[in-house]
Design a protein that fits this description.
The structure is a single chain. The protein is of the alpha+beta class. It folds into two domains: about 90 residues, Beta Barrel (OB fold (Dihydrolipoamide Acetyltransferase, E2P)); about 300 residues, Bira Bifunctional Protein, Domain 2 (BirA Bifunctional Protein, domain 2), CATH 3.30.930. The protein has 13 helices and 16 strands. The strands form three sheets. An eight-stranded mixed beta sheet has the order 6-10-11-16-15-14-13-12, sandwiched between helices. The two termini are about 45 Å apart. It binds one RNA strand through strand 1, strand 2, strand 3, helix 2 and strand 11.
Length: about 425
RNA sequence: UCCUCGGUAGCUCAGUUGGCAGAGCGGGUGACUGUUAAUCACUAGGUCGCAGGUUCAAGUCCUGCCCGGGGAGCCA
């Protein structure tokens, strides 16, 4: 019977057995008569120990000549060992070299610069740190999908290629679509609204595109956004849903990714605090007053600047909803606030620890006349929005929704400085490859 | 688009007042039976981003350009 091939992550269940591991050698330490081959197989990392008098002379010499990132099949016996970080090691009986590189591996053990790492993103992804980040990213996506599925949300994904539809004409990527102009989607929200009229509770989840020339740690030109939209939910229902989702997300990562968070040296206390109580609420008007007291020069009508967000979030240990922004600072589809006509029924959710806005949401304008008036004053091309206006012509309905940015959420929960590390292939203004 | 910082060995960086181009890591050779970014010895490795200028002499000073980083605005 052939020796079974197993994943590194499952080795703990095979102590004492002979197994095959297929992977890459990410590092090697050698002491003349013993080689320590550090192996990774995508599922985890393990040390394979090769003792000179336990393998053939040829195998020992061959291992000596291995370069970093050689691909291998290693056969050996799984052994528990207190000296191993994962608790197990592989005592090697034989190795099969699939490919031994002839050039040195570009990524070394010491620190690298950002430019170099991004040029080598295809190799950088192999590191333990990047693996931990992708594991958390996957857990967050999974927690979002299961959260919504369990609450009977219908998945109704929106198109990536669109006509002139979105939040604003600037920042659109234009492309040639069989002699017509088309654009990469900035948001799936308008489509989600249509789907909500069809299925009640819906969401879309996909990449969105902003051609803004932003060069900050919080911006990508291509990022993933989850956009739930619910029929007959008002502004308050909307915020309650957001709070449940975000708390659930943090709880899931704390429960399932402790090793990854430890490897990333994430301080867990601020994350635990997030789950310990209700999120805070402050109105935009109160926020302006408070910010002025704290030294900001913001005045009514301005959007919160990056520094304002930082100042504000430093006052709280859990996420904070900033509600009811002035009309002029927000998009055309947001519902006028009946209690304060200068503002709209919206809320941004600001993450703690200076991570800033992760959610933008609102109740939608369901009054046809008010919506048309606002769209005209914004100079929108009404022809391309007729289908959207139909939602107010055929059974208009109170409804609300929000968009949560995946990368900002992952960066916050992982405690990372920069958003570019949390997506496999970041797209930034001056970087298209790899 | 604006502000700001940077570009020196494969990588990360140092280079003082303008005066012979440096270190660590990585590579190569050798030693080592428990290493965790292994260690030790020896060794190879340079268009100082590009183009001009000043000077007896420029990595260093000046001008222009190219390529990146950080931030602002905008937003998730």
């Amino acid at each position: 019977m052939a020796t079974p091939w197993i994943s590194v992550k499952d080795m703990i269940d095979h102590v004492g057995e002979e197994v095959v591991v297929k992977g890459w050698m990410y590092n090697k330490r050698s002491s003349g008569k013993i080689h320590f081959l550090q192996i990774r197989d995508g599922s985890g990392f393990v040390q394979a120990v090769m003792v000179k008098n336990e393998v053939s002379e040829e195998a020992f010499e061959e291992a000596k000549k291995l370069w970093i990132e050689a691909s291998l099949e290693v056969t050996g016996t799984v052994r528990s060992d207190d000296r191993s970080a994962s608790g197990v090691e592989l005592s090697v009986s034989s190795i099969k070299v699939i490919h031994n590189p002839t050039d040195e591996y570009p990524i070394g053990k010491k620190d690298h610069g950002v430019d170099f790492l991004l040029d080598n993103r295809h190799l950088w992804l192999r590191s333990q740190r990047q693996r931990a980040i992708m594991t958390v990213r996957e857990r967050i996506i999974w927690s979002w999908r299961t959260f919504l599925h369990d609450r009977d949300f219908m998945l109704a994904d929106s198109p990536i290629i669109t006509g002139a539809i979105g939040e604003g004409a600037s920042g659109l990527f234009e492309l040639d679509y069989f002699d017509q102009k088309a654009y990469l989607a900035q948001t799936g929200q308008l489509y989600a609204e249509a789907a909500a009229a069809a299925y009640g509770k819906v969401y879309c989840f996909g990449p969105t595109f902003r051609a803004e020339k932003s060069k900050t740690r919080r911006h990508l030109t291509e990022f993933w956004m989850l956009e739930p939209e619910v029929a007959f939910y008002d502004h308050k229902d909307n915020m309650a849903l957001q709070e449940d989702l975000v708390r659930h997300t943090v709880e899931q990562v704390l429960e399932h990714c402790p090793k990854e968070l430890a490897l990333l040296e994430r301080d867990l206390e601020p994350l635990k605090a997030v789950t310990a109580g209700p999120f805070y609420h402050i109105s935009y008007r109160d926020a302006v007053v408070k910010l002025n007291e704290l030294g900001s020069s913001i005045s009514f009508g301005d959007d919160l600047g990056a520094e304002d967000e930082t100042i504000l979030t430093q006052q709280y240990d859990r996420p904070i909803f900033v509600e009811c922004y002035p009309k002029g600072a927000k998009a055309f589809y947001m519902k006028e606030n009946p209690d304060d006509l200068e503002t709209v029924l919206c809320a941004d959710l600001l993450a703690p620890e200076g991570y800033g806005e992760i959610i933008g949401g609102s109740q939608r304008e369901d009054d046809l006349d008010k919506l048309v008036t606002r769209m005209n004053s914004d100079g929108l091309d009404m022809d391309s929005y007729q289908w959207y206006l139909d939602l107010r012509r055929y059974g208009t309905f109170v409804h609300s929704g929000f968009g949560i940015g995946l990368e900002r959420t992952v960066a916050w929960i992982c405690g990372l400085h920069h958003i570019r590390e949390v997506i496999p292939w970041p797209r930034t203004i001056y970087r298209l490859n790899p």
